[in-house]
Each structure stands twice: as structure tokens, then as C-alpha cells.
Amino acid sequence: SVLAEIERLGSDGEGHAILLHGVTGSGKTYVMLKTIDRMLERGRGVIVLLPEIALTPQSLAIFCTRYGERVAVMHSALNAGERMDTYHRILSGEADVVVGTRSAIFAPVKDLGLIVMDEEHEHTYKSESNPKYHARDVARFRCAERGAVMLLASATPSVESYQKAKEGKYKLLKLTKRYGNATLPDVI
User: What residues pair up with 118 in beta bridges, in sequence order?
Assistant: First the structure.
């Protein structure tokens, strides 16, 4: 039902913001990957934001295995030449799945259809140096401008995002159970 609702919102050509609130192990990554698949089938580009470089290799393996040469990686550890090559691959349309940290929000993706922010509550999405920005705010602007979907995913959403969902500014979708009837551990 979560995928069906994202599909419905993503097919009307208007900008939408969705907060996917799911417990750990509930299938948020699966929902993100299926949503990316559907956007790519429509010929639309995707940006996937991860909170920090340390998480990129693990997550990158998931995206590279699934999407191969279509993936471009953007983060601050790239040197100037690598950054330029990546930029040109994205600009030319050769890479239509951009995976990266905060600054990847500015990637020149052709026909942007989806921006995913994994672990959207993380403080690393907020830039403290000039120019100061929050990747979530830039994502919301870009999605509204391009008729794209912003998909925020977290087991512990930020207060700001959760409040916007409660106010109806974001669509709130919940995954309340772990996949495969797995149980949550006892908390003491």
C-alpha cells in the first residue's frame, strides 16, 4: 500500500513531499529501491542522499549492483578531476542515479523525478559553512519546481518533518512492523 501511494503521487506530474516513517527492518530500503525503479522506467532521474561518506560504500554497493553504470557518486572526498567527470556524466544523462552526501542535492540530473533522503533526521544534511543550507529545503524546492517527489525516510524522523507531515504539508506513510514478522528487540 505504501508503494501504491508513492506511485499514485509520483505519477501526477506535481511536486510532492513524502515522509516514510518505518521501524528498523521494516523495508524502507526496499520501498526506496522500488520507487527508484519506477522513476527510471519513466525516464526520470533520481538523487539519493546519504547522511555521511562513511555510509556511502555500504549503500553504494546496493545501488551499483542494481543500477550499474547509471550511478554517479558525489561527495566531498572526490578530487577536482573526479568531481568534473562525475558532473559531466550527470549533465550528459549518462548517469541518471546520483548517490551522495549533502552537496549531491545540487547535481544537474536531467528530468529530475525523485529525491530520496535516507535517515532524513541526520544533522549532516545541514551545512554550517557558507553557503548555509539544509539539503531537505533544497530538495523540497527542486521537487516543487520539477514536479518531482521528495521521499524522506527514517525510523526516527526529525521533529520538523514529522510536524509538517502532521500538518498535511508532507504525506505521512508508515511501516509499523518489521519485514517477515521479525520482532523488535526488547528495550530496557
Answer: 153
Residue 113 CB: number of other CB atoms within 10 A? 25
- For 141, the grid coordinates are 524546492
Q: Which residue has the cell 559531466?
A: 88
Q: What is the pTM of this model?
A: 0.90
Distance of CA 104 to the CA centre of its chain: 11
Give the model confidence (pLDDT) of 134-143 as tens digits: 999 999 999 9
Structural contact between residues 26 and 178, judged by C-beta atoms closer than 8 angstroms: yes
Q: Please work out, in degrees rounded to the nearest 5, the angle formed at the alpha carbon of residue 147 by the alpha carbons of 83 and 131.
A: 40
Pairing of strands 97-100, 71-74: parallel
Distance CA 116, CA 32 (A): 7
